[in-house]
Amino acid sequence: MATLGYSVRPIVLTTLSAIPGDCNVVAEIGPHRAYAPGEAARLSDYLAHGGRLLIMVHPAFPLVDELGGLLGKVGLSSEQAIVIDPLNHYGADEEKVAIPYYPPHPITDRLALTIFPDARPIRVEAAPAGVRTTILAASSKDSYLRAAPLASGGAVATEPSAAPHGAAVLAVAVEGRWPDAPGDETKPFRLVLVGDANFATNSYFPYVSNGDLVVRMIRWLADDAARPGAQPQTFSPLQRITLTRDQMRDIFVMVEIILPMSVVLFGGIVWWRRR
What we know:
Elements: E1 8-10, E2 25-29, H1 39-48, E3 52-56, H2 65-72, E4 76-77, E5 81-84, E6 89-90, E7 93-99, E8 114-117, E9 123-124, E10 131-138, E11 144-147, E12 169-176, E13 189-194, H3 210-221, H4 245-274
Parallel strand pairs: 1-2, 2-3, 3-13
Antiparallel strand pairs: 4-9, 5-11, 6-7, 7-8, 10-12, 12-13
Helix pairs in contact: 1-2
């Protein structure tokens, strides 16, 4: 991941109790091994005391047991699947979901197009009292799910014709009072869950607004609203223009059909008047 310039701690469960709450973010990015007993309890205790946690999970990771139970406390879950979006995607790859529109939230305010390659769906249930959940990114209503390969081997893919279609949530922001918080604890926790870790890698960080989205997630978790919103610094020898399928279709129709036909039409009108 590119350097963000914030106090982001990779997850070290044995040292969570030593991390102060102010302006620190614990990041769990692309886990590959299931949590050992007691590790999720450390994270739960950290959040109960106003912790800030960023979780990015690959589709192949089994989000069950310890980590799944932790997210279940605030009404979140996720099945082991990949979101396929035939309507909004990058280029011709329907697994690279494109998000052209965003809801109002400090993370997504005035944010442009973002690409999520190989993302998993997030299920949002009713949140407990004192907890507020905001959907940050969701695929189009034409999306469907395909079974993700298991960590130990392959999995049979779901046929598109048999898979239910509907918008899939890809990222959520949660804040409020942690359900297991002590009675005298009033500091709110913040948590961001993303069903994809590849969108923040160096390969995709320069894509459209991917870098902006990652930086804004960290800033919101760190409660950093006073610092100027500088754009993340990226370096690429090529300047890309990323379009969704609908945008490419509209440009093709405009340039290849409407524009030439308008020239022919106006030319015919001029000829008719001058003949």
